[in-house]
Amino acid sequence: MNTKRKQQKQPVNTQPAPKMREIVVDENHKTFYVNSVQIQQSLYDFKLIFGLFDTLPNGKTQITNLETILISPQHAKELANVLTENVRLYEENFMPLPMPISTLETKPEILIETFPETD
Questions:
Q1: Distance between CA 60 and CA 57 in Å, rounded?
Q2: Nearest to 36 by CA among 73, 72, 74, 62
Q3: Contact 68/49 with Cβ under 8 angstroms?
Q4: Model pLDDT, residue 115
Q5: CATH level 3 topology of 36-96
Q6: Alpha carbon distance 83, 74 (integer Å)
Q7: Rounded-to-integer distance, Cα 102 and Cα 119, Å
Q8: Cβ neighbours of residue 70 under 8 Å, at least 6 residues apart?
Q9: Spatial separation of the C-alpha atoms in residues 71 and 39, rounded to whole Å
């Protein structure tokens, strides 16, 4: 029985080591607290509409949209991965986060924009 194994070549990383990034804060930069995110998608982008959900004195609910961000589907997927990993680390370091009952009872509304076919 031949016990010698072929050594598999590991891929060589030819990319230069990442450099430290300088983060510049634009003079128009704003920080918001939001408790509502509406997500719309099309073939080419995802639209994230951030806002505040509130219950009015008359019992009706209201969402005040504050900012809209457009990102590519690839960026949306990477954002989902990064958020998932950060929530996992948060729960590992602090405490598990229970899902609100209202979230468990309803499915998220998915808004899909469609584009008419062109000749």
A1: 7
A2: 62
A3: yes
A4: 47
A5: Transcriptional Co-activator pc4; Chain A (2.30.31)
A6: 14
A7: 45
A8: 45, 46, 47, 48
A9: 11
Q: Mean pLDDT for each consecutive 10-residue tract of the chain (119 residues)?
A: 56 66 91 92 95 93 95 97 96 91 55 51
Residues 6+ apart with CB under 8 A from 109: 38
Using an 8 Å Cβ cutoff, are 73 and 80 in contact?
no
In a 13 Å sphere around the CA of 89, the CA atoms on its Cβ side amount to 6
Residues 6+ apart with CB under 8 A from 56: 62
Q: Is 45 in contact with 71 (CB distance < 8 Å)? A: yes
DSSP H helical ranges for the chain: 73-93, 101-105
Show the tokens assigned to 73: 């589907």
Give me 45's structure tokens: 């982008």
Do the strands 36-41 and 111-112 form a parallel or antiparallel pair, or are they unpaired? Answer: parallel
